[in-house]
Amino acid sequence: MFSKAESRKLRQDFWTSFGKSFPRKWILYNTKIRDFSFKFYFDKKKAMVSLDIEDYNIENRIKYWDKMLSLKAILTNEFLPDAIFDEAYILDNGKEISRIYLEIHNVSIHNKNTWQETMVFLNETMQQFEAFYYEYEDFIKA
What we know:
46% helix, alpha+beta, 142 residues, 4-stranded antiparallel β-sheet, 4 strands
């Protein structure tokens, strides 16, 4: 067991190490589309890279979700074959979003032995998401 302070320090150490190991500006934190963003996640059980559509305006969320569904075959055939599409993903806070994601299990931010595997996963997955997004950005934004 780790105290909250120890856990916080491990999280900080991981993300600092990730930034040093894979020094790259991840442009897609800001897609310029409101409530349409790419995210990294790593906890005690899994790591995830996701594209979240969080718009409170349900019509906008449906519009972007439909666009992503129309591109699903391209995304899964050419970029991320294991991508999971979840139209109604429930966050821990109870909020419903639409999410496209990839995750790996059996890794833990508290276990430094899994950090390298996780860093490679996050880096490679995000690069593929970015390549896909840049290729189809005009269609998604239209």
